[in-house]
């Protein structure tokens, strides 16, 4: 309800602001309809502005990219800030150092998922974009200790019915939740013991027990289902739903049970999402668009992909020890008329991207940071060839017990 109120407030406020540019004290003569709008604004103002007092609502906005004068959004825009005296509903003039409040709100109001609200599409060089940061800190387990960054980030794992990546072993222990999508349970059951040839297969399977198995359950074998059920795994049968994929069902479930995933503060790592049948791969890529507010990362041992949603300036940290050497930007959801990048060997400058025309593939990061701004959603892909080599070196020599 609060989100709807916030949107109503944003629609109602600009006309009042425009009427007050010449007068610091605003006392309009209101008709019946205007009086109702006025009361709505007076009621909603203290409630909506209080949203900005919580710093965690702005986790992705870099201070370097806030609008001029917005050094502290909570201080500037709370009811006690210099722009508002909400008790008497009088509006102070915008000073030389501040942009009009309606412009600030267009750029910095967070959405219901806790992410900054995207800006309108258009020439990306002439509009302000809030910044989203992307970093593959979950791949740090293979780095030397002196190269690892301190992080308390957590993630959820989702295992699909495809070849089980070696990466599973290294990601397992730090995952807050482990979900198998239907036949993904077969893959886990069959493949995990082969990676520990000198251990008892049953003991290995008990160590790598999923928390949840979910889907229409038309692929999981009966003995696999019974084994994990006996260990306490939650098994959710959605066989009545034949209109959505098992990945769709599992992502929706993760969003429902994990608050941080819903707010965009936690990644959902999908293993076995790239490779195999091409139609399955495209279905997995489609999930990035269906759940564009969720930070989904598709993974195999060779590649990684995630969505760069339009309306943001994306900063992608590149860990050259495991990522690369190749990357790409794919306009799968529709053509882009204006995409700009920095940090690539072949950068784009207000470039049009579309299938049937130019797409950026076999590109290469040239530093430790790539930035992307576009007027459409793009899929970022990066090869993990260096990671794959490290994985093979570590299997059999590292302590992989969760």
TrEMBL record:
Enzyme kind, highest EC tier: transferase
UniProt KW tRNA-binding keyword: no
GO biological process, one term: thiamine diphosphate biosynthetic process
Biological function: Catalyzes the phosphorylation of thiamine to thiamine pyrophosphate (TPP). TPP is an active cofactor for enzymes involved in glycolysis and energy production. Plant leaves require high levels of TPP for photosynthesis and carbohydrate metabolism.
Classification of source organism: Eukaryota, Viridiplantae, Streptophyta, Embryophyta, Tracheophyta
EC number assigned by the record: 2.7.6.2
UniProt entry keywords in alphabetical sequence: ATP-binding, Kinase, Nucleotide-binding, Transferase
Domain Thiamin pyrophosphokinase thiamin-binding: 313-378
Gene3D superfamilies linked: Thiamin pyrophosphokinase, catalytic domain (3.40.50.10240), Thiamin pyrophosphokinase, thiamin-binding domain (2.60.120.320)
SMART domains: TPK_B1_binding
GO function term, MF aspect, one: ATP binding
Protein name: thiamine diphosphokinase
């Amino acid at each position: 309800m609060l989100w709807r109120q916030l949107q109503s407030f944003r629609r109602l406020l600009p006309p009042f602001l425009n009427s007050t540019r010449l007068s610091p004290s605003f006392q309009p003569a209101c008709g019946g309809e205007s009086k109702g709008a006025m009361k709505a604004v007076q009621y909603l103002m203290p409630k909506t502005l209080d949203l900005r007092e919580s710093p965690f609502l702005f986790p992705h906005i870099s201070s370097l990219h806030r609008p001029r004068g917005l050094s502290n959004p909570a201080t500037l825009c709370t009811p006690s800030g210099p722009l508002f005296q909400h008790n008497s509903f009088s509006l102070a003039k915008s000073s030389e150092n501040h942009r009009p409040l309606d412009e600030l709100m267009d750029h910095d109001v967070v959405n219901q998922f806790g992410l900054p609200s995207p800006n309108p599409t258009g020439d990306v060089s002439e509009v302000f974009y809030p910044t989203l940061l992307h970093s593959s800190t979950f791949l740090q387990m293979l780095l030397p200790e002196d190269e690892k960054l301190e992080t308390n980030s957590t993630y959820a794992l989702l295992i699909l019915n495809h070849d089980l990546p070696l990466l599973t072993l290294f990601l397992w222990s730090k995952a807050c939740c482990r979900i198998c999508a239907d036949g993904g349970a077969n893959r886990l059951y069959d493949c995990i013991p082969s990676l520990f040839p000198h251990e008892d297969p049953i003991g290995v399977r008990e160590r790598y027990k999923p928390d949840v198995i979910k889907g229409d359950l038309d692929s999981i074998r009966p003995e696999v289902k019974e084994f994990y059920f006996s260990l306490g795994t939650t098994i959710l049968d959605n066989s009545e739903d034949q209109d959505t994929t098992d990945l769709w069902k599992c992502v929706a479930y993760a969003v429902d049970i994990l608050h941080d995933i819903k707010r965009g503060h936690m990644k959902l790592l999908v293993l076995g999402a790239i490779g195999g049948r091409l139609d399955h791969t495209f279905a997995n890529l489609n999930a990035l668009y269906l759940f564009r507010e969720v930070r989904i990362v598709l993974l195999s041992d060779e590649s990684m992909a995630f969505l760069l949603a339009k309306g943001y300036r994306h900063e992608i940290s590149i860990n050259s020890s495991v990522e690369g050497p190749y990357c790409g930007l794919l306009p799968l959801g529709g053509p882009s008329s204006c995409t700009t990048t920095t940090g690539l060997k072949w950068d784009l400058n207000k470039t049009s991207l579309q299938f049937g025309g130019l797409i950026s593939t076999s590109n290469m990061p040239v530093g430790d940071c790539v930035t992307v701004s576009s007027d459409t959603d793009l899929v970022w892909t990066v090869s993990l060839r260096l990671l794959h080599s490290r994985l093979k070196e570590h299997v059999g020599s590292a302590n992989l017990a969760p």
